[in-house]
Amino acid sequence: MNNILFFLTPKAMCAFVYDDFSIRQALEKMESAGYASLPILTKHGEYRGTLTEGDLLWALKNICYMDMRQAEARRIMEIDRRKDNVPVRVTTTMQDLVQRASSQNFVPVVDDKDTFIGIVTRGAIIKYCSQHLFPED
Questions:
Q1: Dihedrals φ, ψ of 59, to 5°?
Q2: For each successive 10 residues of the chain (137 residues), what is the average pLDDT?
Q3: What predicted TM-score, i.e. pTM, was given to this entire model?
């Protein structure tokens, strides 16, 4: 299997936040999605980075001073993020994808115009490997 699209969760099925979201909007989106990190996209669909629960927690403390009114007034791109998940292109090799997934819980996938098309989760790769390394008898 050399095509990473086999593992892709398409954008339409992904939870994400837009780069102009307020901190409060991002908190609400993360809560409703139930994920610990989400891709950040522009309104044009370009990938901008990764927002984590920890990023939001520190922003609430350091930028909003634990005040939800401040969280409505501040944008997520004002937040210092600990680490952005590095995206790959659809032409990325499986070896590079697995290597990237070893240090990221999801790998953003972009097309040749840097438009976000979806994610590959570490879980999808592990499931595939498990099925092929340990097939049921």
A1: -65, -40
A2: 84 98 97 97 97 96 89 95 95 91 95 95 90 80
A3: 0.89
CATH architecture entry for 4-133: Roll (3.10)
Rounded Cα gap, residues 92 and 54, in angstroms: 29
Dihedral (CA of 58, 37, 27, 49) sign = positive
**Token digits of residue 9:** 């969760």
Please report, for the chain, the start and end positions of each structural domain, with discontinuous segments joined by +: 4-133
**Residue indicated by tokens 């600990």:** 82
Spell out the residues 6+ positions from residue 26 whose beta carbon is closer than 8 angstroms to its own: 17, 38, 51, 56, 76
> Rounded to whole angstroms, how far apart are CA atoms 47 and 1?
26
For residue 45, give the DSSP letter.
S
